[in-house]
Write a structure and sequence with these properties.
mainly alpha, Methane Monooxygenase Hydroxylase, Chain G, domain 1, 2 domains, 7 helices
Length: 216
């Protein structure tokens, strides 16, 4: 039971009134128009979801967030609900057009109209499956982008840690209070060459190595 207003029935009421005025109203065709209006109502919703998926893919590539991931899963749940509604309708309509289910008042002419509804339901079902695949791909894209950005951050941190590793060794080595170091490194040039010079040389050598291997 659906107790809320259904705008798609406005056109059905108008056409039904016109058919009654011309004496062409029949139960089988009125039922066709009701079902056809309901089935056609799926397409605008699916088209809006298609546009939303495209927008989500662009947003994910630009800046992936947790909110986008939550939206993707919510859309997947909506498609699951769509499938639960469409699949039984498709099966019932398949039984009607195949003659397995008897519908009172069915004629050869009316059967062609109901077959058109069946074709629409197949199309809706295919679109639901297609959009589910697109959403799964969008989720994978989101996870991949986040993983790639994490790898970039980890690489940057590794580069920084690698640069400071020889600096820490050199400062620790020259900071020892051994008699040789205390007695021989006493002048400014010796300090600049042995202390600051070696550290700068280590940094330049590491940066050259990173650039050669295309780490940045």
């Amino acid at each position: 039971m659906h107790r809320d207003p259904l705008p798609v029935f406005d056109t059905v009421r108008t056409r039904a009134a016109a058919m009654r005025q011309h004496g062409k109203a029949s139960g089988i065709f009125l039922l066709y128009r009701v079902i056809d209006a309901l089935v056609d109502g799926f397409f605008p919703v699916l088209e809006a979801m298609d546009d939303r998926i495209d927008d989500m893919e662009d947003e994910i590539l630009a800046d992936p967030t947790d909110a986008q991931l939550a939206t993707l899963f919510e859309m997947k749940r909506s498609l699951v609900t769509f499938r639960k509604v469409v699949t039984p309708e498709r099966d019932v309509m398949a039984g009607i057009v195949a003659g397995a289910l008897e519908l009172p008042g069915m004629t050869d002419e009316a059967e062609r109209y109901y077959r058109d509804i069946y074709d629409h339901l197949i199309r809706v079902s295919d679109l639901v499956d297609s959009y589910r695949d697109l959403l799964s791909g969008a989720v994978d894209t989101h996870l991949s982008v986040v993983s790639n950005r994490l790898n970039v951050v980890m690489k940057q941190l590794a580069i920084i840690a690698t640069i400071f590793l020889p600096l820490s060794f050199l400062t620790g080595f020259f900071g020892q209070n051994f008699a040789f170091l205390v007695g021989h490194i006493t002048s400014g040039p010796a300090f600049l060459a042995g202390g600051i010079g070696l550290e700068l040389l280590a940094v330049v050598a590491l940066l050259a190595l990173f650039k050669r291997r295309r780490w940045f």
